[in-house]
Amino acid sequence: MRSKPIWLFSKVGHRSHIGALRRKGTVYCNTVEHFQGTKDGNLRGDPLENCTSFYHPDQVKLTVNGHSLTEIVGPIIVYNSPDDVFQATHLFCMTCIYDGMEMRDDGKIFDERVRDFGEMMLIIKPAAFMTRVENAVTKLQQQGIDIDLYRGMVEYVPSEKNQHQMNVFRKTDTYAWQSEFRLALRVGNWGGGAFPLQIGNIADISYVVPIKKFINKYEELADGRVDLNFS
Predict the structure, then answer these.
(1) In a domain, 181, yes or no
(2) Number of folded domains in the chain?
(3) Which of 51, 133, 154, 157 reaches 20 to 30 Å from 42, CA-CA?
(4) Per-residue model confidence as pLDDT tens digits over 174-206
(5) Between 75 and 207, where is the model more confident?
(6) Inside any domain, residue 146
(7) What pLDDT, in 10s, does the model give residues 94-149?
(8) Segments forming the whole domain that contains residue 20
């Protein structure tokens, strides 16, 4: 995973969902199975979620019981055991703007496709947000809940090449436009479905912007603040 200074997080969604996240601080972490099974044109859904590796037929030789298989359609995908990752890993995904990030050719940071996530964008201060997430997880651990937190920027790998070290922090470059940062929770003995991590009201470390106002320019100031200009 890449480790770079992050200037801001953003979460795009519908007005009611963004409002609830900001006011109540409920971070809904969906299962890996949810993202794997969602079919929405490579927006939230990714059929390669939960895979450990994939191989293109023209780049490998597959032999079963001494017989070579030559007429294989599509990539060969190896998945984790459902009893492991499907039931225990929950993800919360955000876009992150980080130090050294390249500006798009059109001068904007966000790809136009983020509009498909919803009409509102929540801009979040990353350090303060992560402190509240970590505190919430620590509190649950102190209560005896079997939970662990992992987090980091997603690394995007070439989809046309064989990949044998895939995990929840590695995705194909089909999704590189999302510039994603993920929270990954390993929750034991959870009954299934999204896990609601309660971090409290975050109105003091975030603000809401209509998605039609894309961030198109930014610069790091001497005191470490980020100057955001909207159009």
Answers:
(1) yes
(2) 1
(3) 133
(4) 889 899 999 999 998 887 789 999 999 999 999
(5) 207
(6) yes
(7) 999 888 777 667 667 778 888 889 999 999 999 999 999 999 999 999 999 999 99
(8) 6-60+69-230
**CB contact at 8 A, 23 and 207:** no
DSSP bridge pairs for 186 = 89, 148
The two tokens of residue 144 are: 């005896």
What pLDDT is recorded for position 1? 47
Phi, psi of 189 (to 5 degrees): 60, 35
71 in Cβ contact with 57 (< 8 Å)? no
In a domain, 1, yes or no: no
In a domain, 46, yes or no: yes
Instruction: Give yes or no for a contact between 217 and 97, defined as CB atoms under 8 angstroms apart.
Output: no
